[in-house]
Amino acid sequence: MNNFKYHQPKSLQDASSLMQQHNNNALLFAGGTDALGLIKNNIITPGNLVNLKLIKGLNEIKYTPGKEIKIGALVNLVDIAGHSVIREKFAVLAEAANNIASPQFRNVATIGGNLCQRPRCFYFRGDFHCIRKGGNLCYAAAGENKYHCIVGGDPCYIIHPSDSAVALLALDAKFSIYSDRKLKIVSAWDFFILPSIDPTKENILKPGEILESIIIPEPDNGSKSKYIKFMEREVFDFAVVSVAAVVKKSGGKIVKGRVAFGGVAPKPWQIDILNKSLAGLSTGEEGIAAFSKKFFNDATPLEKNAYKIPLVRNLLKRILIDLTV
Ligand SMILES: Cc1cc2nc3c(=O)[nH]c(=O)nc-3n(C[C@H](O)[C@H](O)[C@H](O)COP(=O)(O)OP(=O)(O)OC[C@H]3O[C@@H](n4cnc5c(N)ncnc54)[C@H](O)[C@@H]3O)c2cc1C
After folding, report:
1. What per-residue string of b and e applies to 79-105 under the rule 16 or more CB within 10 Å gives b?
2. Could you give the residue ranges of the DSSP H alpha helices within the chain?
3. Residue 273, pLDDT score
4. Amino acid 1: pLDDT
5. DSSP secondary structure letter of residue 283
6. Which mutation among 79, 117, 214 tests ligand 1's pocket best, with the greatest number of atoms within 8 A of CB?
7. Domain 1-50 belongs in CATH node 3.30.43.10
8. Which residues line ligand 1 (CB under 6 A)?
9. Once rounded to an integer, what is the mean pLDDT over residues 116-134?
10. What does the mean pLDDT of the chain come to?
11. Collapsed DSSP state (helix, strand, coil) of residue 71
């Protein structure tokens, strides 16, 4: 583990200035559950850690009834999973948060850190100078790729590991980013990037930019939401494939819905045509089963992960049935 300087700024401006000052030699530090693992294993060797935890207000949740909920980037996952309003009105997020790692992790890990965590690909985490570390090759492409992506991969086939990101995409959340003394708002979809844009990054944050909060519009009255996470082990594990959905139905038909997927792409994934065509879909089991088979025809699985196509279609079917039938 390399030596580093530990900074404890008290404002976003100071944190941002420190990050800019040290440019590529600094790392933001929240709960530390991912950051410390990366440093201990020499995956990254930042000379400076910029702790965010003394910045006031970043650990608050503010609910405006009928409008939105704003969750500060430093709110711990345990507080999201247990928050009464989130459980009632944004259930998909509470369920996703409650399914992340173990209670010990959820007690210290923050939502901001969960969204900005690095991929779990064992080539990236291992002793390989892969394309995500600035090398030329994605070793998973022709190597061990059982857990890698089936869409959006080229030239690096990671999957994005965050469960909360999938729920937030289904909820059509917006991310507030501190940038150059101002806050700018981007959609959850636009926050994450594909490797074709930059294979060394998972999101749009530039040096000095900090995720400040997440703003989630309140779903329509009568909407229901859910998160299903398929794991290889029941105890705790990253998702092999996951699906999040927010659906409103009326009189045997879906009126409006949004679905997002995890474990299939290098960013939390959505399919615009799927979301559009949910409106008007009959809620009977047969119709939903047929609907679910229409998607992921354009997937390009690697040698060992074609099983994810029927898996993701079945999870889509299951979540729509659970939420409507
Ligand atoms: C054994 C294990 C099991 C896990 N299982 C799961 C799982 O099932 N599902 C899942 O989703 N995750 C899982 N994780 C990942 C875990 O949830 C993350 O490590 C955690 O959420 C990161 O939050 P943190 O506050 O500790 O972030 P840190 O470790 O402090 O930071 C993580 C990254 O985010 C950056 N960062 C932190 N805050 C901000 C911010 N506000 N703005 C910009 N960048 C920021 C840091 O610079 C760093 O790169 C697991 C991790 C482990 C070790």
Report:
1. bbbebeebbebbbbbbbbbbbbeeeeb
2. 12-22, 35-40, 77-81, 84-89, 91-98, 103-108, 111-116, 122-125, 163-170, 188-191, 272-278, 285-292, 308-324
3. 98
4. 87
5. -
6. 117
7. yes
8. 27-35, 37, 52, 73, 100-101, 105, 109-110, 112-114, 116-118, 161-163, 205, 210-211, 238
9. 97
10. 97
11. strand
User: Which of 24, 157, 166 lies closest to 95 in space, CA to CA?
Assistant: 166
Nearest-atom index, ligand 1, CA of 30:
30
Strand partners for 174 = 187, 215
Domain ranges of the chain: 1-50
Per-residue pLDDT reduced to its tens digit, 255-297: 999 999 999 999 999 999 999 999 999 999 999 999 999 999 9
The amino acid at 94: A
Report field, pTM of the whole predicted structure over 0.85 = yes
- Collapsing DSSP to helix, strand or coil, 149 comes out as coil
Is the pLDDT confidence value at 325 over 90? no
Q: Residue 127 pLDDT more than 90?
A: yes
Q: What phi and psi values does residue 44 have, to the nearest 5 degrees?
A: -130, 155
**Cis peptide bond N-terminal to 155, omega within 30:** yes
For ligand 1, atom 14, which residue shows the shortest CA distance? 101
